[in-house]
Amino acid sequence: MIEISASILSVQEEKSLKTFYNLETAGIDYFHIDVMDGKFVENNTEDIMRKYAMEIKHVSNIPLDVHLMVKSVRKYIDEYLDLQPKIITIHYESGKNNILENIRYINENNIKSGISIKPNTEIEEIYEILPYIHQVLIMTVEPGQGGQKLIESTLEKIKKLKQYIKEKDLEIDIEVDGGINLNNIEKIKRIGADIVVCGTALINSEDYKETVRKMKQ
User: Fold this and answer.
1) Residue 137 confidence (pLDDT) above 80
2) Which residue, 111, 112, 132, 137, is most buried by CB atoms nearer than 10 A?
């Protein structure tokens, strides 16, 4: 069964605790923490995401799925180590020279590591990194903003990666993020995703539990 990582980018601050509770009781598997520095991507969410992540750790046992869309990767890894997320995912495009060093650092702190790629990055570019990580996050929109429409051409990367993982007998999850809703999730499940990140389509729905149920069925 597909797992759901709920992106909380569009959560209203005054309703945050109630929203987190409602998401947990709806049956999500992870809280997706989109950390943006205003440099790697245009938006800056570092303060609100840190606040939300701390709130979640105080009121919920649902694990954190931290996605770093930042230039100073090590700085933000350090900021989230104390919250003991399930996984920290860094972008392949944020610094290829020290990417293995940062992956090793995450793993040494008993946290799973992930690599994310933008829509224009070819999946073959990260094949040599796969033996060292636990998850690949394929962006199906340009990172930085919620509510975008899924870019259909990015789905081919999911198929290629699934086949490669199978051929090499690797234990890696494929997570897909961007524009996912009830109209396209079946296709994404069918071609090999293990986890989907859902933000706007879930947060703006009238019934979280029913939306999660339909996504997982």
Assistant:
1) yes
2) 137
